[in-house]
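Customer escalation, tier 2.

The customer says the design service returned an amino acid string that "doesn't look like it belongs to this structure." They asked us to rerun it and document both sides in this ticket. The original structure tokens are below, unchanged.
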């Protein structure tokens, strides 16, 4: 029934438990095992059966009336025939109307449809009365089907929610509820099973299907020590994982919570239409009453039956269900489409806000770059490269700095060198002994303070540079750089193609590096060396410009203040940064900056469809209302103005589920 649909939207949030399969709610079928039809198929048939029965009865009655085939089909027999046709589709609506009245809500669409169709029976327009209620019921079926389609992505998430975990306890793996597993415990995941909790991989490698989390169908292969996310499906071999989070804090639990709460944040358009419908409905009821009785005082040939018929038409046309249903369904469809593309909007209001954005401000590290240091160039002067790197790696093994980790990824053949007497020179680097030689590893300040002459060619290098001195002689240097993400260039181009007029980069990294990356990506303006409060101040200054609507894209804890302050906060790496995911309005689950432009396009498509539906509903209703009041429209036109327009609006909203955004 349409009441279920309306209640879905009028709740503060979607109850995910209501979307679960019945077996998960403790319900069971009373089937004795001999019926081979699925309960879902039986339920669907039973849902359509009343409408089918009424349709057959209505067509048969109209055919008998038209051909006058049975002379006895008159009087009380004709009334009973159409009453039987009316009851299967009319009784549920009348019942809902009565429930609403008992709850103090008189002016609902159930009340309007009940009065209009019962009034049609009262004046002898039996076929029209049945037809109006029949098409209304068919409209409800279409609406339910549309909502079920839009809920598909949420159901997909529920399907991957793990319901058991194999945890190592008492020298064996035992099956337990994931909510009882503690941080630091070891769990086992077999082929085809879902990872129940976030953790780090203890096995040598693993391959996972993360489609439900990221929207990407390509398997994700990771190595020992890498992070594994709950909800991923193990594709290759039995693996073991050490848990790092409780179930309630896992990636899949956070995503489910965001989707569950998304509809609580309704758009301004949706809120306005709801308020409008509550005022609009009682107004048209009183107008219909006036249309019935007031002409008595102004029309010479007043006929009560004719004016009552016009009033009933007026009531059918004025039913606001096309607006009340199709608009939230449009936003719900947009949220579902975004989720299917690896983008989570935390509410319909942010779909609207995204359409207003004209300035995109982004962080650098982790947003357009991978946030992982790699060796870019090795320049050895006094040694062969491999020998030079052995000295450097021996020293860096004593450090925990991210740059040291990047250097240690270098593959050197032969025996490893060992560093001794290693000490850290604050803010400059390391000093130690390797193979009896004094080795300095660090920045230019370290070299200068020890009297080491540094080649002038290093002055123009903007990347991070590690200089090496061996026994008082400058031996060479290594440049370390963060890599651009594979789709970084494509992302900037697509953002511009989406109509964004200004793209800005704000980074905590060195200004020289920030400027270099901005130039490479063709970003309009950039500034580096910023603290979190500096980024916040820059965005606040932008917001002071009247026509500027800012979206900020970041990925970490340091970006949280700006994410909260911007018009739309977009977090990259939604499965990584807890603070970012809590603060942001939109989450890019795939960590791909190219999804930003797609989020903008989905927001615009959703808003466009919503306004198309508003224009369609109001336009048709106004025209047919005028015709109905003037006696130029019948119940059949009224059916189209109400149910027909609602169906067209719903079909239009469903288009979001089929759209592609490149």
């Amino acid at each position: 029934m349409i009441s279920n649909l309306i209640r879905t939207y009028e709740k503060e949030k979607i109850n995910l438990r209501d979307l679960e399969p019945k077996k998960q709610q403790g319900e069971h079928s009373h089937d004795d095992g001999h019926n081979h039809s699925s309960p879902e198929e039986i339920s669907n048939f039973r849902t359509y059966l009343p409408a089918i029965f009424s349709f057959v009865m209505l067509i048969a009655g109209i055919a008998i009336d038209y051909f006058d085939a049975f002379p006895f089909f008159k009087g009380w027999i004709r009334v009973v025939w159409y009453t039987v046709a009316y009851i299967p589709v009319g009784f549920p609506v009348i019942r809902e109307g009565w429930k609403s009245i008992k709850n103090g809500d008189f002016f609902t669409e159930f009340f309007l449809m009940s009065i209009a169709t019962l009034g049609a029976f009262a004046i002898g327009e039996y076929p029209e009365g049945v037809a109006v209620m029949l098409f209304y019921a068919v409209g409800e079926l279409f609406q339910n089907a549309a909502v079920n389609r839009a809920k598909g992505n949420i159901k997909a998430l529920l399907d991957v929610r793990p319901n058991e975990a194999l945890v190592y306890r008492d020298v064996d793996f035992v099956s337990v509820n994931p909510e009882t597993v503690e941080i630091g415990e070891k769990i086992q995941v077999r082929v085809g099973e879902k990872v129940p909790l976030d953790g780090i991989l203890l096995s040598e490698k693993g391959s996972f299907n993360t489609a439900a989390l990221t929207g990407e169908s390509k398997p994700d292969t990771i190595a020992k020590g890498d992070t594994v996310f709950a909800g991923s499906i193990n594709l290759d071999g039995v693996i073991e994982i050490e848990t790092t989070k409780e179930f309630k804090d896992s990636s899949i639990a956070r995503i489910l919570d965001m989707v569950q709460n998304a509809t609580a944040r309704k758009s301004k358009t949706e809120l306005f239409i709801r308020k409008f419908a509550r005022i609009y409905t009682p107004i048209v009821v009183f107008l219909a009453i006036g249309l019935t009785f007031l002409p008595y005082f102004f029309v010479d040939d007043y006929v009560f039956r004719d004016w009552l018929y016009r009033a009933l038409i007026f009531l059918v046309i004025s039913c606001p269900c096309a607006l009340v249903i199709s608009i939230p369904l449009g936003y719900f469809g947009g949220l579902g489409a975004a989720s299917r593309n690896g983008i989570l909007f935390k509410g319909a209001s942010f779909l609207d806000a995204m359409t207003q954005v004209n300035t995109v401000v982004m962080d650098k590290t982790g947003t357009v770059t991978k946030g992982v240091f790699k060796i870019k160039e090795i320049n050895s002067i006094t040694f062969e490269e491999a020998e030079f790197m052995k000295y450097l790696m021996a020293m860096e093994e004593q450090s925990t700095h991210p740059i040291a980790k990047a250097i240690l990824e270098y593959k050197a053949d032969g025996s490893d060198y060992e560093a001794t007497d290693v000490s850290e020179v604050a803010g400059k680097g390391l000093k130690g002994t390797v193979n009896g030689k004094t080795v300095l590893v660090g920045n230019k300040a370290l070299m200068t303070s020890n009297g080491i002459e540094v080649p002038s060619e290093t002055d123009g290098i903007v990347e991070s540079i590690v200089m090496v001195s061996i026994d008082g002689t400058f031996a060479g240097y290594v440049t370390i750089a963060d890599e651009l993400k594979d789709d970084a260039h494509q992302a900037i181009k697509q953002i511009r193609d989406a109509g964004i007029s200004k793209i800005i980069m704000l980074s905590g990294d060195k200004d020289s590096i920030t400027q270099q990356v901005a130039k490479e990506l063709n970003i309009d303006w950039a500034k580096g060396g910023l603290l979190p409060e500096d980024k916040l101040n820059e965005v606040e200054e932008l917001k002071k410009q009247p026509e500027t609507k800012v979206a900020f894209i970041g990925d970490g804890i340091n970006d949280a203040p700006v994410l909260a302050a911007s018009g739309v906060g977009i977090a990259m790496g939604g499965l990584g940064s807890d603070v970012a995911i809590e603060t942001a309005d939109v989450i890019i689950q795939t960590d791909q900056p190219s999804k930003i432009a797609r989020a903008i396009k989905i927001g615009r498509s959703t808003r466009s469809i919503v306004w198309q539906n508003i224009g369609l509903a109001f336009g048709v209703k106004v025209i047919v209302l005028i015709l109905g009041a003037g006696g130029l429209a019948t119940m059949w036109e009224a059916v189209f103005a109400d149910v027909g327009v609602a169906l067209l609006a719903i079909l239009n909203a469903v288009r979001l589920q089929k759209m592609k955004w490149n």
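Tier 2 assessment: The sequence is consistent with the input. The two ends are 37 Å apart (CA to CA). Residues 1-41 have pLDDT under 50 and may be disordered. Sent an explanation to the customer and offered a walkthrough call.
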